[in-house]
Design a protein that fits this description.
heterodimer; A: 319 residues; two-stranded antiparallel sheet; 2 strands; B: 320 residues; mainly alpha; ABC transporter involved in vitamin B12 uptake, BtuC; 1% strand
C-alpha cells in the first residue's frame, strides 16, 4: 500500500490527465444510477450539446500552452449570434455568414495576440476587456432584447446525422484530429511546446516567441468563430445572454485535460476527454437535480482542484 | 523640465507610478463636466458622486494590495454580492457584520493558500473562487430582496452636521489603507515582494528574510475584507441583498487600479493613485449618465479604457 504512494508512482499517475479519471468515475456513476441513459442515441444528444465547448477548447488549449489565456469567447459568440439572428445582413447566404464569422474571429484573435505578444499586456485583462467591449456593443445594438430568429438552414445542418453519430460531433472530432496532426507534424507544434516551457530559453534558441503567441491567439479566435456558429445553430434563436460561461468552462476542461499554464506539455486528447467529462457531468447533475448554482460551485471546485493537483506536482518536481 | 516634474508625468523610476497623469485626467473631466453640465457642481451631485464612487474606491484599495505583489483577485465581485446576501439574511447586526468579515477573510485565506502554498496561478485560483462564491450566493438569495440590518442602512444614508456619512466612510477607509500600505512594515514588504516578482527575481525578498508567502497570503485576506466592506456599504445603499450587485466589479476595480498608475506586474503603485483612479471611473460614469449614454455603451467604453490603460503599461513578462 505504501509503495503505491511513493514518489515514482505518484509522478507516474500524475502524468495522466485527470480528465480520464473524472470521465471514468462519471461513467461508472451514470452506469449505476441510470443504466438506460447509456445508449448511443441519448449520449449522442448530450455530447452534441458540448460540441461548441469542445471546439472552443481546441483553441484554448493552444493559448494556455503558450502561457496565455483567452476569455473573449463570450463576446465573439454574442457578436456572431447577432450577425446571424438580427436583420443586419438581410438575405445573406450561409457561406457569407461563415466567412464573416471567421473574419470576426480572426480579427479578435489577431488583436488579442498583438496585445499579448507585442504589447506584453496581461492576457486576462486584454481578453476580458475585449469581451466586455463586444458584449456591450452587441447589447447596445440589440437594445438588450433577443434580436430574432436564426435561418433554418443552420438547424437543418445541425440536426443531421451520419450513421448514428450527429454531424456536429463528427465535425468536432475531425477538427481535433486536424489540430492534433498540425501540432505533431509541423514545426509550429514544437514552437508551442518550447515557448510554453520557457519563453526566455525559446527566444535565445531562435524560436519566434512573439509570432508563436500571436498565431496561437489567432487560431483560438478562429476556433471561437467556429464554436459560435455551432452554438448559434444549436439554440436556433438570437440571444444576448447565451454562452457567457463558455470561455471559463473551456479553461476548466483544458486544465482538467492535463494542459498546464507555462509547462508547454499536454496534447489534444486530454482536453477532448475533459470536455466529454463535462458533458457527462451535466448529465449526472441534471439527473440528480442539481440546479444552476450547484453547477457554478461544481465548476469552480473542479478548476480549483485540478489547478491544485498540478500546483502540487510542479512543487514536487522542483524540489 | 526638472527631474521631479519628469518623474511625476512619466512615472519612470517612481515607486508610486504614473498617478499624476490620473490626477490630470480627473481634473480635466471635472472641468469638462462643470462647464457642460450645470447641476454637476452642486453639493448634492458631488456628495452623490462620493456615495457612488465609495464601493469602487474601497474595492480598488483592496485590489491594489494583491496587485502590488503581482497578483489579481477576480473574486471580489462575488464577495461583494455574497456580503449583501449574508447581511440580508436578517441576522442581528452584532452577529452578521463580524460574520461577514470572518467569511470574507476565509475566502481570502483560501485564495492566498492556493496561490502561495499550493502553487496555483492567482488568476485561476480567484476565478474558481468567483464561481464557487457566486454559486453559494445564488443559493442563499436567488433574487434580490431580504432585510438589511437598520444600522447598516443608517450608516450609509445618514448625515453628520450636514455632511453625508459616505464622506466619512471614505476618510476612515483611506486612513486605514494609508496605515497599511504606506505606514507599516507590511506595506513596505508588499512593495519589495512585488518589485522582486516584476523584475523576475521572485526569491529576492525571501533571501533578505521577508516572510514573503505569509505577506502575500495576508494581501489576499486584506483584499477580500475590503471587498466585504464595500459589500456592506452597497447593502446599505440598495437596502437589500442582491446576487448580481457585484457583477463585473472586479473589472472596474482593476481598471481603477491601473488608471491610478499601479503596475499590474507588481511593485509600483500608490494609494492616492488608486483613489484618484476610482474617482475617474465614477466621474466618467456620472458624466456619461448625464449625457444619457446607454448603460451597454458605458460598459463597452469602460472596456476600451481598460485596454488603453493596460496597453500603455510596459512589462517584461509575456502571457498571463
Amino acid at each position: 500500500m505504501a509503495a503505491l504512494f511513493n514518489r515514482t508512482n505518484f509522478n507516474r499517475i500524475s502524468r495522466i490527465p485527470p480528465a480520464y479519471f473524472v470521465f471514468a468515475v462519471l461513467l461508472i456513476v451514470l452506469w449505476i444510477a441510470r443504466p438506460h441513459m447509456l445508449n448511443i442515441n441519448i449520449m449522442g444528444i448530450f455530447i452534441r450539446q458540448v460540441v461548441p465547448l469542445g471546439i472552443l477548447v481546441l483553441g484554448q488549449m493552444l493559448v494556455i500552452r503558450v502561457n496565455s489565456i483567452d476569455l473573449s469567447g463570450a463576446g465573439v459568440l454574442l457578436l456572431i449570434n447577432f450577425y446571424i439572428s438580427s436583420s443586419m445582413f438581410p438575405g445573406a447566404s450561409l457561406p457569407f455568414f461563415v466567412a464573416i464569422s471567421l473574419a470576426t474571429g480572426l480579427a479578435v484573435g489577431l488583436f488579442n495576440g498583438y496585445m499579448v505578444g507585442k504589447r506584453r499586456v496581461s492576457a486576462v485583462i486584454v481578453t476580458l476587456a475585449v469581451n466586455i467591449v463586444l458584449v456591450g456593443i452587441v447589447q447596445f445594438l440589440a437594445s438588450g432584447k433577443p434580436p430574432g430568429d436564426v435561418p433554418s438552414i443552420f438547424s437543418d445542418i445541425y440536426n443531421t446525422k451520419l450513421w448514428l453519430i450527429p454531424t456536429p460531433v463528427l465535425f468536432w472530432v475531425a477538427l481535433a484530429l486536424i489540430m492534433s496532426l498540425f501540432l505533431s507534424r509541423f514545426v509550429y507544434g514544437r514552437y508551442v511546446s518550447s515557448v510554453g516551457a520557457n519563453p526566455v530559453a525559446a527566444l535565445f534558441s531562435g524560436v519566434p516567441v512573439e509570432r508563436t503567441v500571436i498565431v496561437a491567439h489567432t487560431i483560438a479566435g478562429l476556433m471561437t468563430a467556429l464554436a459560435s456558429l455551432v452554438q448559434t445553430a444549436s439554440i436556433a434563436v438570437g440571444s444576448v445572454r447565451v454562452g457567457h460561461e463558455l470561455p471559463i468552462l473551456a479553461v476548466a476542461a483544458t486544465i482538467l485535460g492535463g494542459v498546464v499554464f507555462g509547462r508547454g506539455e499536454g496534447g489534444v486528447w486530454g482536453p477532448f476527454f475533459g470536455v466529454l467529462s463535462f458533458a457527462l457531468l451535466f448529465v449526472v447533475m441534471t439527473t440528480f437535480g442539481i440546479g444552476e448554482s450547484g453547477k457554478l460551485i461544481t465548476q469552480g471546485l473542479i478548476i480549483l482542484l485540478a489547478a491544485i493537483f498540478y500546483g502540487l506536482r510542479t512543487a514536487k518536481s522542483r524540489t | 523640465m526638472n527631474r521631479t516634474m519628469k518623474r511625476l508625468l512619466t512615472g519612470k523610476d517612481s515607486r508610486q507610478g504614473r498617478w499624476f497623469f490620473a490626477l490630470l485626467i480627473a481634473l480635466a473631466i471635472i472641468v469638462w463636466l462643470g462647464l457642460t453640465t450645470e447641476r454637476f457642481l452642486t453639493s448634492e451631485n458631488l456628495f452623490n458622486l462620493v456615495a457612488q464612487a465609495m464601493p469602487l474606491i474601497i474595492t480598488a484599495i483592496g485590489m491594489m494590495l494583491v496587485v502590488l505583489v503581482g497578483g489579481l483577485d477576480l473574486s471580489v465581485g462575488s464577495v461583494i454580492s455574497f456580503t449583501t446576501a449574508i447581511l440580508a439574511l436578517g441576522a442581528p447586526a452584532l452577529i452578521s457584520i463580524p460574520g461577514v468579515f470572518a467569511l470574507a477573510a476565509c475566502i481570502g485565506l483560501i485564495n492566498g493558500l492556493a496561490v502561495t502554498r499550493l502553487n496555483v496561478h492567482p488568476i485561476i485560483a480567484t476565478l474558481s473562487m468567483q464561481f464557487i462564491v457566486l454559486g453559494i450566493t445564488r443559493i442563499l438569495r436567488p433574487v434580490s430582496g431580504g432585510d438589511v440590518p437598520q444600522i447598516v442602512i443608517d450608516a450609509v444614508a445618514g448625515s453628520f452636521y450636514g455632511i453625508p456619512l459616505p464622506v466619512f466612510w471614505g476618510i476612515v477607509t483611506v486612513l486605514i489603507a494609508w496605515k497599511i500600505i504606506h505606514g507599516s512594515r507590511f506595506g513596505l514588504h508588499l512593495f519589495a515582494i512585488g518589485g522582486g516578482i516584476a523584475s523576475g527575481t521572485d526569491e529576492a525578498t525571501h533571501n533578505f528574510g521577508v516572510a514573503d508567502k505569509q505577506k502575500i497570503l495576508l494581501a489576499y485576506v486584506g483584499c477580500s475584507c475590503f471587498a466585504a466592506l464595500a459589500g456592506i456599504f452597497l447593502a446599505g445603499r440598495i437596502v437589500s441583498g442582491d446576487p448580481n450587485v457585484g457583477l463585473l466589479f472586479e473589472m472596474d476595480a482593476i481598471t481603477a487600479v491601473a488608471i491610478g498608475g499601479t503596475q499590474l506586474s507588481g511593485g509600483v503603485g500608490s494609494l492616492h493613485g488608486t483613489v484618484i483612479g476610482a474617482l475617474v471611473m465614477a466621474l466618467l460614469a456620472n458624466g456619461m449618465n448625464s449625457a444619457n449614454i446607454s448603460a451597454f455603451v458605458q460598459t463597452a467604453i469602460k472596456g476600451v479604457i481598460l485596454l488603453l490603460v493596460v496597453g500603455l503599461q510596459s512589462r517584461k513578462k509575456m502571457g498571463l
